[in-house]
Amino acid sequence: MPLLVLLGCQWGDEGKGKIVDFLSGDVDLVARYQGGNNAGHTVVIAGKQYIQHLIPSGILHEKTACLIGNGVVVDPEVLREELDTLEKNGISVEGRLFISQNAHLILPYHRLMDKALERMRGKGKIGTTGRGIGCAYGDKITRQGVRVLDLLDPERFARKVEKALDYYRPIFEGILGEQCPTTQAVIDQIGPLADFIRGFVVDGVSMINRYIEQGKRVLAEGAQGIMLDIDFGTYPFVTSSNPSPGGVCTGLGVGPRKINSILGVVKAYTTRVGAGPLPTELLDDVGEKLRTEGAEFGATTGRPRRCGWFDAVVLRRTLQISGITDIVITKLDVLDSFPEIKICTGYRFQGEILDLFPFGIEEEAEVEPIYETLPGWREKTTGIKQFDSLPENARAYLHRIEQLLDARVAIVSVGPGRENTIMRQDSFF
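The chain above was modelled as a monomer; its predicted structure follows.
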């Protein structure tokens, strides 16, 4: 079956957008299966930067169709802004962008609730983006969500919004001390977008299965990373959906036997935005150098990312969960000037040595990383086209990662542009 899944293996921000864009030239359909506009996928083409939050990164290829699946939560206002930006850059989505009718909507009260909850948590805040993603997923699970298909029916939309606000009003006004929006205010703000969104709405489940059955190439694109998975990540400092491969099946409506291969994207070091454990975090000049050299600032929020050495303990856990056999290493070039590079190979935890990330830790202080030091290569890798042309120490670093993970490095990224990508095989389909 011609279905390739591409997902993040750390805490997001691994460079998935670039890799999706790179592979999409040979793909018929790119389908996003989870997350919302809390994710930012950055693509650089001919020196020009494009940042997508909702629309799959494959949209930058004029012959590639893109589907926002039912597992995504959609803010219709953000969607329109993204489409306006693409149009201003001369990129047409006509006949190429589709939205699953079952996708849930992010509405104004979700954003208000998200921000109010973070304020209430105080020092224990999770570090959400404040974009209402978790609250929209919460409504989905408590069965009071509003879906794309509801927006297309004005009476149904009004009825569902009113029902949701009957629930939210006493929480806003009685607990959080916030003004709750009126039903009419939400209708006036969002209702006019119904006609705009109508032309993109499809039965997403039938669409993607039809592509697969016809033998067309489909790439399923995840947001965030497995260590932010609601079930397997560093709970409660996680996202509100499943970036892991199970999210593909529930977020798009495809059976697991239709997945052909799973490709995991991994940064050559480790970063994280927001609160939660990051055992290899570097709070020194080395960490600052990683941040500066790697331009490690969130594409969605602009927040500085926390930086640390490559963590094989994290990756062993994510590979166990995902079944990945091939990985993509991004931002190898960021390490070009480092005289030595460390890899975390294990943890000391409660008197034991662990080689898998333990569930349940909420502070990085609970574990002590065990490091292995490798020599740096002190040579420029950007512009190199072949794996065997990489500096010897760079290849040794990648081979050591392969040994520690028992997984093959299939793609290496040595710069932000499409052209700065080294392929070690012709196709993943």
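The chain has a mean pLDDT of 92.
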